[in-house]
TrEMBL record:
<keyword id="KW-0210">Decarboxylase</keyword>
<feature type="domain" description="Orotidine 5'-phosphate decarboxylase">
    <location>
        <begin position="31"/>
        <end position="325"/>
    </location>
</feature>
<dbReference type="InterPro" id="IPR011995">
    <property type="entry name" value="OMPdecase_type-2"/>
</dbReference>
<dbReference type="GO" id="GO:0009220">
    <property type="term" value="P:pyrimidine ribonucleotide biosynthetic process"/>
</dbReference>
<comment type="pathway">
    <text>Pyrimidine metabolism; UMP biosynthesis via de novo pathway; UMP from orotate: step 2/2.</text>
</comment>
<keyword id="KW-0456">Lyase</keyword>
<dbReference type="InterPro" id="IPR011060">
    <property type="entry name" value="RibuloseP-bd_barrel"/>
</dbReference>
<feature type="region of interest" description="Disordered">
    <location>
        <begin position="1"/>
        <end position="22"/>
    </location>
</feature>
<dbReference type="GO" id="GO:0004590">
    <property type="term" value="F:orotidine-5'-phosphate decarboxylase activity"/>
</dbReference>
<dbReference type="InterPro" id="IPR001754">
    <property type="entry name" value="OMPdeCOase_dom"/>
</dbReference>
<comment type="similarity">
    <text>Belongs to the OMP decarboxylase family. Type 2 subfamily.</text>
</comment>
<dbReference type="InterPro" id="IPR013785">
    <property type="entry name" value="Aldolase_TIM"/>
</dbReference>
<dbReference type="Pfam" id="PF00215">
    <property type="entry name" value="OMPdecase"/>
</dbReference>
<keyword id="KW-0665">Pyrimidine biosynthesis</keyword>
<feature type="compositionally biased region" description="Polar residues">
    <location>
        <begin position="1"/>
        <end position="11"/>
    </location>
</feature>
<dbReference type="GO" id="GO:0006207">
    <property type="term" value="P:'de novo' pyrimidine nucleobase biosynthetic process"/>
</dbReference>
<protein>
    <recommendedName>
        <fullName>Orotidine-5'-phosphate decarboxylase</fullName>
        <ecNumber>4.1.1.23</ecNumber>
    </recommendedName>
</protein>
Length: 336
């Protein structure tokens, strides 16, 4: 573990992700995570109109990379992806501006950026930097999981830096990321180790919010235990708690199945829960009170479309509607 030095000169442990999360929740008085799932067909019109600055940011970064690689001018396809990525970046910045005071973190869905190729990843890097500038944590939602050597590379890509003969290559710089545990414990351990070395966290899929989760995660094992109960025990064992008491390895526990939360909290008493499914998927904040048993930071309520698309009902601007919906969720969750 990385150490810092206290006033008396003795080394003291650096804060764990659980400590960082607890402090951030207390300071901002929010447990809301803004899911960022940009759909190029549904971007805020006003944001697209102001995409020139975002385009300049991406073009500069992209041209620098091409020049270093000795590449010729970009093809028409690359230009189209660059233009789309610029509009996505402008949309994301506008969305963050609208709701930052009401949320604790952003959760970019990596696939929504990766489908735009290299410009999309550059947009994601800029979104990560901008969210950090607004004092927000960044939870990269990629649900990574693979054999150990590949898992280590995934961890480096998302939170760490990678040494190379040409200098150190910085990763995304996320504060946490999601992981798929179905390849087993040895697929999680490199992710956990890399995250822990950088005071970052991992949120492991335990009982997700999609309807089809029941096909796999509700299956009974040979001892009668449901698979998600087994995964919960694994997550609890992997996590380490800091002075604040909250563990650095979290669990994705869908808000659409609130009847499972009491049992999940019993199995993972000090684990932070990431709770997707509020809003567009039908989850209700009032039903997830067991998630907050360890304290305010024990549950992170994530909402994406219900915030970004709040303007589709009513006559408010996208920014005004998004801010109002994020604030409504914040107040509702904080009161539990």
């Amino acid at each position: 573990m990385t150490v810092s030095h206290s006033g008396n000169g003795r080394p003291s442990p650096s804060p764990t992700f659980g400590d960082r999360l607890s402090q951030a929740v207390a300071e901002r008085e929010s447990q809301i995570v803004l899911g960022i799932d940009p759909d190029p067909a549904k971007l805020w019109p006003a944001a697209i109109d102001r995409a020139s600055e975002a385009r300049a940011r991406l073009a500069l970064t992209f041209s620098d990379a091409e020049e270093a690689a000795g590449e010729s001018p970009p093809s028409a396809g690359v230009v189209a992806r660059l233009e789309t990525a610029a509009a996505v970046l402008a949309h994301c910045r506008a969305l963050i501006d609208a709701v930052a005071p009401a949320v604790i973190a952003v959760k970019p869905q990596l696939a929504c950026f990766e489908r735009l190729g290299a410009p999309g990843w550059l947009a994601l890097e800029h979104v990560t930097t901008y969210a950090h500038e607004q004092g927000l944590l960044v939870l990269a939602d990629g649900k990574r999981g693979d054999v150990p050597v590949t898992a280590a590379a995934y961890g480096q890509a998302l939170v760490a830096s990678t040494p190379s003969p040409f200098g150190t290559v910085a990763g995304l710089g996320a504060d946490a990321f999601t992981a798929n545990p179905l390849l087993g414990r040895d697929s999680l351990e490199p992710l956990v180790q890399t995250a822990r070395e950088h005071q970052a966290g991992v949120f492991v899929l335990v009982r997700t919010s999609n309807t089809g989760a029941a096909d796999i995660l509700d299956a009974r094992m040979h001892n009668g235990e449901r698979l998600w109960e087994h995964l919960a025990r694994l997550v609890d064992d992997l996590g380490q708690a800091g002075p604040a008491g909250l563990k650095d390895i979290g669990a994705v526990t869908g808000a659409t199945e609130p009847e499972h939360l009491a049992r999940l909290r019993e199995l993972m008493p000090n684990t932070p829960f990431l709770l997707p499914g509020i809003g567009a998927q039908g989850g209700d904040v009032a039903a997830i009170a067991p998630a907050f048993a360890p304290g305010k930071a024990g549950g992170l309520v994530t909402a994406s479309r219900s915030i970004a698309n709040a303007h589709e009902t009513g006559n408010r601007s996208p920014a005004e509607a998004a801010r109002a919906e994020a604030e409504r969720l914040r107040e509702q969750a904080w009161s539990l």
